[in-house]
Amino acid sequence: MSKRFDLIIDGKKVGAEEGETILKVAWLNGIDIPHLCFHPDNTVRANCRMCLVAIKGERALQTACSTLAEDGMEVTTVNPAIKRDRKFNLELIFGEHVEDCPVCVWNSRCDLLKYRKQYNSKMLRFPDRKTKRPIYEFGPIVFDQTKCIDCRNCVDICPTEYLEVEGVGSDIGIAPSMDRKKDCIYCGQCVVHCPAGAIKSQGEYGSQAALENLLKQKDKTVVVQFAPVIRSSIGEEMGLPYGTIATGQLVAGLRKFGFHKVFDTSVAADFTTTEEAGEAVKHIMSGKNLPVFTSCCPSWVRFIEYNYPEYIKNITSVRAPEIILGGLAKTYWAEKEGLDPKNIFMVSVMPCTSKKFEAQRVEMKINGLYPVDMVITTRELARIFLNKKIKIANLEAEAADMPFGDPSGAGVLYGASGGVMESALRTAYFRLTGEDLKDMDLFKEVRGQAGIKRATIKLCQPVKTGRGECVEIKAAAVNGIKNARIILDELKQDPKKYDFVEVMACPSGCAGGGGQSLPVNEQIRKKRIDALYAIDRGKKIRLAHRNPEVIEVYEKYFNTEEKRKNIFHTGFGQKPKTKIISRKRTKADGALHE
Amino acid sequence: MRNISKIAAARLTGRGGAEFPTAFKWLAVAKAKLEKFDRPAYIICNATEGEPGVFKDKHILRYFPGEVINGIRIALEELGAEKAYIYVQRKDLNTIKKRLTPFIKKLPIRFFAEDGGYLCGEETTLLEQMEGRRPEPRLRPPFPTEHGLHGCPTLVNNVETFYYISQIVKDEYRHTRFYCLSGAIRNPGVFELPIDLTIAEVLKKTKNIPRCKFFLQVGGGAAGEILLPDETNRPLKGAGAIIVYDRAKTKPQELMTRWIEFFFKSNCGKCAPCREGLYRLREELKKAKPDWLMMRAILETMRDASFCALGKSVYTPMLGLLEKV
Ligand code: SF4
Ligand code: SF4
Ligand code: SF4
Ligand code: FES
Q: More exposed terminus of chain B, fewer Cβ within 10 Å: N or C?
């Protein structure tokens, strides 16, 4: 137990724990000290200097984000000098930030604007000094130096150290690395950790016009699918509390916008699980290419392809759910409905920037077609709803379209770190024992927000393995690429350490994905995830292989091995470094002041 | 510990400009060394001296190289340090090396050369650079005395400080310091004189009483304070520079521009108020009629909010000039 003590903030006595900063104690007590460079996911760098506070007995003002609370301390968070400093500091910061609020990932809800109001800062006191700076494009990421306020959150959060600080003094700038050893994995963590909206994904926010155009074309069937975690995060930009489950309203909203069919990616996750559990069990039994790595996270796949090609063979060949759903729609479903697959346009709503890249990988093509034609982020969908005044909170819930409308509980877990693993283990249990899992909490060790969750699962009689009485699966669910490096190091030491490894590049898995709404922090991610587990608990069918749609499609359609391979499986391979495009800001980038 | 007591008794303060009691620093390193007994400790002699008007370290290294090395040797022994580094500007490396090497002999003293610039006068920036990172200041705590070079207890002292340590240990310290005089005077140079002389007395003793109408900048040629002739009845603080300006020949805006250009080139870019403030001050000074009120607001913000002493210190000379001259 660490020491607890009291201090005074703005005349109010508050309790604190040893090791907590003034900023944190204040925040826990409902006192908002302005901060831009501080993010709870990152290290403290104290370079924006917005969080200045006065401490009794200290001559100079101190930064609350970097100063530890002490017993008996007396802190003042606003006084005239602090007010003035914050006002001018913010004006200086606005001078290095081109405002393009209508097309910014923050959608005018950023802290810069919030503090501007509080401190009466003039946005235009100083002319923008960075308008001629480059905008970099790499993979699905657009990095705009003309908006960057040099806080370095992105540098800190980037799991591949791909973003680097260049230059000195006022010429400082953040830029993608030219180093051959480093490449972007498109996870978008830089996007959701930038206080200034300087980073976004390709296509934000041009998707609405493109979609409206498509919907006008008579011969097209425009189908939309939504990833597991969208149902518990879409409400965030629409005034719903964090973690609100809005599946039915989301479906209604998508229909209202005009999509012809609305499918649920979680149903496809049930297919992925069924296939992947089968594959994993096969490997574990034969001992070949162990451990099995999951493939649902394209950033993780890309990370392995670029940095650890020797492990490419370990990645399961089973495709990610959104791709499988696209594939099923353009084969099985097209056949069933009598549609020409070429006229089906598949849109996926994903919490992810990397999925934009995944959808365009040639390895994903099925029968010469891309399974998914367009990926939009949670943020983009929220913006479309806002623009079209589709208030999902007021909509009557509707069910998604069959046959891909009703997932098992397991399918919904894909949005959380550990969820893919848990779903697969539930089904593997059946494969190994011939019985359905009854205790749904048997694999709960892989849940939660810890960086690495290890579990050894021992299944004994009646195990139908023919290899002795029991089988043991050494599993690890990893959350974040930085932690994945740890696991890979362990595997270098002891190749037999794990049998089955799930890796999600983003903190807490897709719930913390780079396509999600801002802001994000551990509490918010937890709420998004808790909602998914609540959905799972409420479901009658919680095992992927028991989803009736899955059973039906397997029986009716996947009667040949070839069909199964064609739609469910793919391969991966070494990739060159991402091309970096550098361009200048144009009118099309939409600045408020010219 | 005998030598630390002597340093404490002599009330020696750091001569790099910050005037921190030297004995405290040594004690802190000694204490950290006890706690982290499995780690080496390091001594760093800072010879970067990057500010205009400050050129005493070069003078000391030139005329008293043996004393400086002796001071470093004392630190090595007293603190049980493994190695010492002398941090010099790349361009000075060869000259300084030639002068000091004969005195180093078998002592574990190495040179470290970089283009660190003014900001490396700041200890943690210097450490960052020595560890191969961007030369930017670190957050404190932890202090370099406990968590310095490669996370080990580290003593950073300036050339002049080591010189006086040698004198103190030999019982030869006479409470003097080095003064760098420059500007509109007849007899510029480096002078070793008692610490408690007033600035007026220093000018007099060095035969440098200006004949023109003048004002002074003392401490350093960028961050130093501005003094009028009637303010010179006190001893000098800071880095030992006294610069005399001829009032008739000095255009305030030009002088400010010189300072701001210097700071602008020297700032690391880490914190917003300093990086952005200097940019805007520089732009404003390019105008025929700068907005002094706004500049003042920027300077106040920089003074209160900057991460390190560089940004904080711009206020003093600028406001001095604005208000006094
Ligand atoms: S997308 Fe991910 S890997 Fe790429 S720069 Fe951003 S944080 Fe780094
Ligand atoms: S891009 Fe954003 S997160 Fe990165 S340094 Fe600039 S303002 Fe900070
Ligand atoms: S964890 Fe999820 S959101 Fe993040 S990159 Fe991977 S698939 Fe995308
Ligand atoms: S939040 Fe404390 S300095 Fe940026």
A: N
